[in-house]
Each structure stands twice: as C-alpha cells, then as structure tokens.
Specification:
Layout (H helix, E strand, L loop, with lengths): L1 E7 L3 H7 L2 H8 L3 E7 L12 E2 L9 E2 L1 H14 L7 E11 L2 H8 L3 E5 L8 H6 L3 E4 L9 H12 L9 H5 L18 E2 L2 E2 L2 H4 L3 H19 L1 H12 L1
Parallel strand pairs: 1-2, 1-6, 5-6, 5-7
Antiparallel strand pairs: 3-4, 8-9
Length: about 240
Amino acid sequence: MMQIFVITPFPAIPEAVIGESILRRAGEKEIVDYHMIDLREFTEGKHRQIDDYPFGGGTGMVMLAEPIMKAMDRVRELYNGDKGLRVVFPSPQAKVLSQETSRDLSEADGIAFICGHYKGIDERVRETVVTDEISIGDYVVTGGELPAMVILDSVVRLIPGVLGDEESANTDSFTHDLLDHPHYTRPEEVKGLKVPEVLMSGHHANVDAWRQEQRELRTKNNRPDLWEHYQEELLK
C-alpha cells in the first residue's frame, strides 16, 4: 500500500479532493493510505505562525523551516515503506510535470507533499528534505495544495488496481508520444452531429487506423513540440 502524506496549513483543501472520485476509491480499496499533516500543529506561540519576513529584505513572506522539518519528522515516524520516501515540493521554478514523472512516482512506497505558500519555503528545506520539485505549468497559484492534488491524481491513477480498466491509462495522451484520439458514445446522433461511420463499421483494423490518424493529426495541430519528437523517434 502506498502511503501519501500531505503537509499543509490548510488540510481541508486536500481532504476535499481526496474525498472524491478515483482518489477516494483508491483509499477505499486500501491501495493508498492518506495522512493529512496539519503544519500548524508544529508551530509555537499563540498565533501558530508558519511564516516570517525574508532575510535581506524584499516583499512577501517565507514559510519557516522548523515547522516543516518537525512535520517531516512526524511523517518519518508514520512511514513504514521498504523504499525511500519521495518528498515532493510543487514549485513553479521546477521542471514541468510529465506522464513519465507520474509513472516514476507511482512506483514509490510513499510520497510526502509539502504545500508551500507566500513567496515559498525556507531554502534549507529544499536543500535537505525535498527529493522532487515539480511544476504543473508556467503560472503561479495561491498555494501548493491544488498543484499537489494534480500531481497526486496523475500518480494514483497509474497504480495497478486503482482504475477499473488499467488499459485505459495506457492509452492516455502523453503515454506514447501522441495525444489521445477523439472519443464518441451513444446516441449515434446529437443535434445533427453524427459519429464517424468508421467507428460504426465493426472493422477493427479500419478503426485502429482512423484512431492512429486522428492521434497524429491532433498532436501535429495542437502540440508541434510533441509531433517533432514523435517524427524523430520514427526515424531512429
């Protein structure tokens, strides 16, 4: 069973996400075990302060190192995996999340997410605690909870037994260089819009050829960077 720890000053946010859909079912199946670690439990003083002004001046606040390190001590007490714990810090300064990264993380025994806020976390945490920094895109959001949940969802769905149809994950976009092909379901016609005839033909070879053509077309039009890489791989 994979152990997931979320270190956050706002546990209600990840709890709401984990309580729904695939993430909830993964917990119910005892494939994943979730632990919410409330960062404010590891603070001192009546205000339970988790941030302070940065040394050297400048705008904004920085999350304190000590509460995070104490929270990580609690995580290590709870963690019982055979492999080393992966500690993920969602950050816009990091390499952008990929399907390859998610698949790599899905093979871990345990992952701890550190949810940052304000101008970030004390650099000493990044240097001594964090094993993986991951960005979900070239933009900034208010806190690390939502990026952590995006990363978590992309990881958990790849763990064997989580999805009802494991082959579904193997045909997703980014799994094999190309984007996914269009999908259709019942009814056959909606407001004059019909399902492509080839999908109704029952001819599996033609269906496969059409889907491959659509994957290539969609990738070429929407993600020329992926298309270029795909072309290079074909020439090898």
